[in-house]
Every structure is written in C-alpha cells, then in structure tokens.
Amino acid sequence: MATILSVSGSPSAASRTARLLRHLDERLIEQGHEVIPLDVRTLPAEALLGADFGHPAIVRATALFEQADGVVIGTPVYKAAYSGLLKSLLDLLPQYALAGKTVLPLATGGSTAHVLAIDYALRPVLASMGPAHITPGWFTLDKDITVGEDGTPAVAPGSAEALVQVTDRFSAALGGRTTVLAATG
C-alpha cells in the first residue's frame, strides 16, 4: 500500500484539524496504508518565518513530502483562507514538492461560510505544486469534531459518513481497496 503524509496546518495544540486528521489516519491505516503525521506547529517558528530552507527540521519535512505517495493536507480556515502556518511551510517546499502525488485537501471551521476556502484558496496553491491528482476535498464544522470518552477523536455521524467517502476516494486514487467504492462500483 501507499505511504501517506498527514499534514496539520493548525497552530493550536488542541486543534480540531489535527483531531480530524488523526481520525482519518486511522481509516487509512485500516486500509493498509502507512501514515506519517506532521503537525506544522511543531516545526521551529524561526525556520518557517525566516525561510530557512537548510534548517534540519525543514529538510526533514521536505524529505517526508518526497517519500510520500499521497498527502492529506488539513487546515483550519481563518478569514476565508487556509492558515498562515501552513502557507509558511508550503512556501519552503520545492516548487514541485507534490509532483506525482495524490492529494486530499481538508478544512475545518466554525461556519459553512468558509466552505469555499478549499477550492478558492488552498486548491490553487496545491495545484501549482504539480500533484498527479487532487481528490475532492472536504470541509468539516468545528462543532462536528470532538474527543470521545476514551480520548480518541470523534466526528459527528453525518460528517463521519461523508469523510469515509472522501477518504475512500483518496485511498482508491492511491490504488488502495476500499469497502465503500468496492460495493458501489
């Protein structure tokens, strides 16, 4: 199966975006993929903001993108756009860091007014980086992302069903087998 880099562009340690990604990571792992999480907030601010391409943490992050077959990019929506933290990382990656890769864009936010941020803000930047395929993305409301009693991320049923379909399409685009797609097609 594929190696997937799961990137959270949220600056928050208690991020709903990261919770959403970890929830999807579990499904991808169940499908046999290797998933490598990357929380951009853990990278040194001085390297990101100072555009230090040679900083060891940035070099390691760049190598993770190179090694991945697929990339899931998650971001909170701030002021109708993806996070500045995510932008800082994307700016430091090589121009074609996504060349040949399958990409799944995801966003979280407090209002459905931000749903177009994926297609009008994030998708053009990702497309400029040369991916082989960008699968349809998904926006999830913050209120639909919680933490279960056992501490694991939980997603409200309606959103969870949609996310299963989005994740399965992404997995299928990577060449993986999925229950939902196998049953319908």
Which helices and strands, and how do they pair?
Elements: E1 3-8, H1 16-30, E2 34-39, H2 45-49, H3 56-67, E3 70-78, E4 81-82, H4 84-92, E5 102-109, H5 117-127, E6 133-134, E7 138-141, E8 145-147, E9 153-155, H6 157-173, H7 179-184
Reading the helices and strands in chain order gives: EHEHHEEHEHEEEEHH
* CATH classification, class level: Alpha Beta
Number of helices: 7
Q: Characterize the biggest β-sheet.
A: 7 strands, mixed
The helix/strand class is: alpha/beta
Low-confidence stretches: 177-185
Counted beta strands? 9
User: In CATH terms, what is the architecture?
Assistant: 3-Layer(aba) Sandwich
CATH level 4 superfamily:
Flavodoxin domain
**What number is the mean pLDDT?**
92
Helix content: 40-55%
Gross morphology is: globular
How many angstroms does the end-to-end distance come to?
20 Å
> How much strand?
15-25%
Q: Please compute the radius of gyration using only Cα atoms.
A: 15 Å
InterPro entries: Flavoprotein-like_sf, FMN_Rdtase-like_dom, NAD(P)H-dep_FMN_reductase, NADPH-dep_FMN_reduc_SsuE
Domain NADPH-dependent FMN reductase-like: 3-144
Protein name: NADPH-dependent FMN reductase-like domain-containing protein
Keywords: Flavoprotein, FMN, Oxidoreductase
